[in-house]
Amino acid sequence: LSPDQIESAESPGISEMSFPFSAAAAIPLYPLISGLSAFLLFCLTLQLIKSAFCWRSKVQKLDEEFPGPPRHWLLGHLREFQANEYGLAKFLEALPNHPYCNPVFFGPFPFFINLVHPDYVPMLSGLLAHVAPKMDKVYGFLRPWLGDGLLVANGNKWYRRRRLLTPSFHFDILKPYMKVYNTSAQIMLDKWEKLCQSGQSVELFEHVSLMTLDSLLKCAFSYNSNCQTRSQTEIPYIKAVYDVSHLVTNRLIFVPHHSDFLFSFSPSGFRFRKALSVLHTFTRSVIQKRKESLAHLGQPCHSKLSRCLESMSGRKYLDFLDMLLATKDDGGNGLTDEEIENEVDTFMFEGHDTTASGISWILYNLAKHPEHQDKCREEIQEVLQGRQEVEWDDLPKLEFTTMCIKESLRTHPPVTMTWRTLTKNVELPDGRTIPEGTHVSIGIFAVHHHPAVWEEPEVSQ
Ligand code: HEM
Question: Is the Cα dihedral 92, 96, 98, 99 positive or negative?
Answer without folding.
Answer: positive
